[in-house]
Amino acid sequence: MKGIVFSEFLELVEDKFGFEMADDIIDEADLPSGGAYTTVGTYDHHELLTLVTLLSQKTGISVEALVQVFGEHLLGRFYEAYPVFFEGVNTCFEFLDTIENRVHVEVKKLYPEAELPTFSATFPQPNVMHLTYTSKRPFSALAYGLIKGSATHYGENIAVTMIDQSAENLTKVVFELVKQD
Ligand code: HEM
């Protein structure tokens, strides 16, 4: 997983829980990388899960909740780092529909070693989007946070329900998004 994801995560931890907390979880995690992430480097995604699990133990907040909040934060950072992906894209559904065939395609060109999930979208009604997440990694909670962050970015009120389709290892999930008016 790309270093940008790790460095953004640790910055958020510092912001919300303080520098010592970030330092403590890195120390305790005893990571192969030593926790010194560079934006362009690539690291084992298990390191992120180890850091989140330790943070969850220390704060009493569930891993899922922490990863979701991180996803919401990350969307804002993606907007700052890659504004081009938002240009000419006017609604949340439209934006989410570009991730598979545009955004992650460009990410893969920039970082050939990136490990990305797959999304497929259907629109059963104009105000309803079904977005199916499939990955080898259990980061559907991150997708949930990124979806919520996208709705916030577009100032839209969207109810999101997550339906696990993978016997609970969270590698295949259908998100039902219902735009409220
Ligand atoms: C401008 C917007 C976006 C950019 C630039 C972006 C870029 C990236 C990058 C760099 C990674 C890390 C790949 C790796 O570490 O190997 C990633 C992973 C991921 N992205 Fe995106 N992304 C964007 C939007 C989204 C949105 C809106 C969603 C959700 C619908 C999403 C879902 C995910 C998930 C869940 C992962 C984790 C890997 C996995 O689950 O297998 N991304 N993305």
UniProtKB/TrEMBL annotation:
What Pfam families is this protein classified in?
HNOB
> Where is the Heme NO-binding domain positioned along the sequence?
2-161
MF terms per GO, please? heme binding
List the protein's name.
Guanylate cyclase
Q: Which gene encodes it?
A: hnoX
